[in-house]
């Protein structure tokens, strides 16, 4: 029997891991248990309350993808054993947010493995995988997947778990890491987040609502009670053999329809009236079936019958209906919200290529029911950010597939998605800048004019709200709005800048959109974000130039203003809005902040507009926008300089 001293349990506040943690604390009072969890949407510290009275229990809120934190814990706590449960596990979410699963399940595992290799202190690493890595089992087969069966995952979730297993296997073979892998059937019981089948059906039955079944409900699964699974990990921890894989399974199977009918029976509901068949997943394995003999030879066996376990689980949810707070989104037939926790810059960098947007997440727990956004601009900077913010604000959304200038494809998107709001961040700004538009005028017209008008018109016919991310680069300082006067262009002013073909198309379409009362036009200018590696970031651009002009301009800090755009859509605000932070800031003021916060040795040179004209094709717009309309609607909006300091330079401070 292996006897650990200091155990690190990752994902400890999640469903299965919390039961394992509690069991080890109660049965082995001499073990030091370090519980690590970033407290994502499907984990809660309440799951670990039974452990808190033990002097041997310590909880650390952190992400396994933070290499520095993981290395520190292994050394500081003298960890000799790791039980690695942390993962994103809900298949439905993986179809909509697959990159998050790659980050958490593969990258997070890799960080742990590398920490073990570097510190050389771990004597046993139990990697928790899933039966889904085997792929689909034939319905007529009476032979379950053995631990040596081929891995044939069929969905993004199981593919990431299989990928993590490949890394685990490689580290065992290359570096002799003491690895043991488990692959388990479905687990149910108290404390489970209700995105999973059993707790979802229980809570819906308690509410008297329909039980949604994907497809025809014939898909077969095997279910183990969490208490039995906790015991299985107890056995694997103490008796498992290094380098081996252990299936944690049961031969007792039930179809999804069977589960729904049994829950209906226990709640005395008419299953024919309550069960509702909905659209199936993109791919839904018909069956997972395991050979469970190997673990049984170590002394483990299933103790809790399905009937007994289901009754206990129902009783627990009846006593704790609000354990997870507002779970309305999770109870949807096809939940579509982000599983990511915005705690780590590296995580955002991995998935989106930019540092996380630093903003207040005080309303992050609120879920907006009844809203669905259709977003255009999937490959663009702003379009990508909008999708992420919708995820965090629990707003259902999808990207448009059609081209804006193709009316039929837009109509198909509207029919497919059935949105309540349409957000358009698609458009041609040029590659790498607006000079491109001067030699590609037809392409620019096609997207910026024809495409935008087509979208607005289709949405007008469909009674849909449209938010169009436009530009404020359609004005230039003039006699009525002189440089340095503090007099900005207002929403009702007529564009006066025709120096670039890009600006001409934007001014043209803005004027035409005034006739559409379903449109909200946001004039964005010189967008800035906290990601100083993004080449579209205005600060990044000018910090890389040899020479810059020095002219005060209105600008848009995306970290602060994009969340406001979502709120504007919720409020159905329409018309034209100067979408910039109040006030102006010059190139030199920004570069001075860059020097003070980022690089004390940074230097730059100025040149005037005449010199600039020699190195650019199209003129550039310089202006001040009147931000009073937006400020009146959102009084907390910061001035441009304060916003840049708070959202860009403070988070990136290096000096």
List keywords for this structure.
six-stranded parallel sheet, alpha/beta, 655 residues, 23 helices, seven-stranded parallel sheet
Tell me what you see in this structure.
The protein is α/β, with parallel strands linked by helices and 655 residues long. Helices cover 38% and strands 14% of the residues. The chain is built from 23 helices and 20 strands. The chain has a 7-stranded parallel beta sheet, with helices on both faces. Strand 13, helix 13 and strand 14 form a beta-alpha-beta unit. Helix 2 (67-76) runs parallel beside helix 4, helix 6 packs parallel to helix 8 (256-266) and helix 13 (381-392) crosses helix 19. The protein is globular and about 85 Å long.
How many β-strand runs? 20
Distance between the termini: 53 Å
Identify low-pLDDT runs.
Answer: 337-368
Helix % is 25-40%
Number of helices: 23
Strand content: 5-15%
Overall mean pLDDT score?
Answer: 88
- Major sheet, described briefly? 7 strands, parallel
CA gyration radius, whole angstroms: 28 Å
How would you classify the helix and strand content by structural class?
A: alpha/beta
In spatial order, strands of the major sheet run 3-2-1-4-5-6-10
Overall 3D form: globular
């Amino acid at each position: 029997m292996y006897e650990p001293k200091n155990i690190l349990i990752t994902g400890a506040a999640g469903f299965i891991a919390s039961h394992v943690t509690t069991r080890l604390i109660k049965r082995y009072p001499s073990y030091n248990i370090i519980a690590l969890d970033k407290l994502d949407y499907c984990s809660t510290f309440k799951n670990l309350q039974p452990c808190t009275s033990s002097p041997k229990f310590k909880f650390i809120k952190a992400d396994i993808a933070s290499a520095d934190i993981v290395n520190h814990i292994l050394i500081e706590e003298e960890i000799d054993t790791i039980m690695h449960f942390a993962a994103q596990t809900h298949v439905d979410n993986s179809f909509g947010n697959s990159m998050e699963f790659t980050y958490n399940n593969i990258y997070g595992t890799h960080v742990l493995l590398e920490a073990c290799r570097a510190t050389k202190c771990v004597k046993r690493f139990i990697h928790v995988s899933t039966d889904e890595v085997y792929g689909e089992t034939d319905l007529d087969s009476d032979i379950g997947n053995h631990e040596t069966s081929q891995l044939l995952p069929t969905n993004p979730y199981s593919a990431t778990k299989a990928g993590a297993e490949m890394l685990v296997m490689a580290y065992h073979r290359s570096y002799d890491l003491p690895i043991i892998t488990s692959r388990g059937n479905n687990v149910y019981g108290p404390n489970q987040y209700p995105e999973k089948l059993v707790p979802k059906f229980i809570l819906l039955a308690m509410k008297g609502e329909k039980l949604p079944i994907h497809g025809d409900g014939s898909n077969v699964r095997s279910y183990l009670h969490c208490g039995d699974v906790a015991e299985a990990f107890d056995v694997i921890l103490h008796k498992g053999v290094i380098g081996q894989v252990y299936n944690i399974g049961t031969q007792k199977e039930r179809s999804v329809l069977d589960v729904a009918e049994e829950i209906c029976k226990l709640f005395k509901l008419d299953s024919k009236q309550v069960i509702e068949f909905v659209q199936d997943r993109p791919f839904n394995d018909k069956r997972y079936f395991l050979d469970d003999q190997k673990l049984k030879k170590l002394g483990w066996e299933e103790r809790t019958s399905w009937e007994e376990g289901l009754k206990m689980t129902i009783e627990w949810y009846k006593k704790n209906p609000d354990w997870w707070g507002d779970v309305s989104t999770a109870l949807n037939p096809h939940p579509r919200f982000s599983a990511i926790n915005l705690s780590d810059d590296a995580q955002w960098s991995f998935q989106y290529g930019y540092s996380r947007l630093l903003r207040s997440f005080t309303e992050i727990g609120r879920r907006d029911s009844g809203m669905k956004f259709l977003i255009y601009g999937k490959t663009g900077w702003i379009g990508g950010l909008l999708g992420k913010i919708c995820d965090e604000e629990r707003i259902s959304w999808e990207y448009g597939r059609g081209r804006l200038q193709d009316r039929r494809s837009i109509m198909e998107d509207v029919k497919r998605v059935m949105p309540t709001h349409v957000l358009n961040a698609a458009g041609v700004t040029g590659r790498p800048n607006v000079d491109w538009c001067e030699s590609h005028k037809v392409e620019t017209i096609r997207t910026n004019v024809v495409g935008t008008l087509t979208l607005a018109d289709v949405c007008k016919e469909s009674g849909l709200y449209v938010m169009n991310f436009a530009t404020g680069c359609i004005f230039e300082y003039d006699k009525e709005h002189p440089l340095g006067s503090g007099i900005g262009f207002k929403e009702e002013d007529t564009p006066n800048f025709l120096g670039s073909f890009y600006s001409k198309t934007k001014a043209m379409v803005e004027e035409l959109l005034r006739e559409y009362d379903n449109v909200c036009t946001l004039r964005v200018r010189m967008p800035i974000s906290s990601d100083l590696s993004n080449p579209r970031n205005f600060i990044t651009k000018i910090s890389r130039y040899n020479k810059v002009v020095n002219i005060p301009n209105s600008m848009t800090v995306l970290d602060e203003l994009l969340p406001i755009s979502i709120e504007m859509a919720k409020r159905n605000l329409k018309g034209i809005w100067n979408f910039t932070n109040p006030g102006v800031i010059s190139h030199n003021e920004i570069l001075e902040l860059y020097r003070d916060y980022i690089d004390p040795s940074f230097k730059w040179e100025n040149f005037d507009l005449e010199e600039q004209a020699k190195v650019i094709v199209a003129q550039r717009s310089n202006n001040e926008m009147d931000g009073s309309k937006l400020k009146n609607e959102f009084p907390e909006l910061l001035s441009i300089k304060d916003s840049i300091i708070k959202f860009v330079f403070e988070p990136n401070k290096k000096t």
